[in-house]
Write a structure and sequence with these properties.
The protein has about 120 residues and is α+β, with helices and mostly antiparallel strands. It has 5 helices and 3 strands; from the N terminus they run ααββααβα.
Length: about 120
């Protein structure tokens, strides 16, 4: 289980990384980039940033490429905002959990629509 300090650092990094992305990555080119979660190693040296990108498939590809290209700049902005002994190296990963969750909900809705209605009479 993660310590309270680690949880607080994760939330702080999540907020500051999101703010840095909002300032650095234009929505028109990259779509809407959201920070879904941040996972930090115990020594705070590496932070895996799980992102979601809303937009066309072209915007999603462009958004991920722009994040990779501007990783050092975003990391520098986070270093100025969050005072830690070590600024974690950022790694961006696309988080498709929202898309998968919506797909599961669509399947459940379709099953409910196609299954015969069961009566509750006894």
């Amino acid at each position: 289980m993660a310590s309270l300090r680690l949880l607080r650092v994760r939330e702080l990094l999540k907020r500051e990384i999101g703010e840095a992305i909002r300032r650095e990555i234009p929505v028109q080119q990259a779509g809407l980039v959201t920070v879904n979660d941040v996972d930090v190693t115990g020594d705070l040296r590496v932070a895996t940033v799980f992102i979601g990108i809303l937009g066309s498939s072209e915007q999603q590809r462009t958004g991920l490429a722009m994040l990779q290209k501007n990783r050092a700049r975003i990391q520098g902005l986070v270093a100025k905002a969050v005072i830690l002994k070590y600024t974690p190296q950022l790694r961006f990963m696309v988080d498709d959990s929202v898309t998968r969750g919506n797909r599961v909900l669509d399947i459940i809705t379709e099953l409910e629509r196609t299954s015969p209605a069961t009566s509750t009479e006894e």
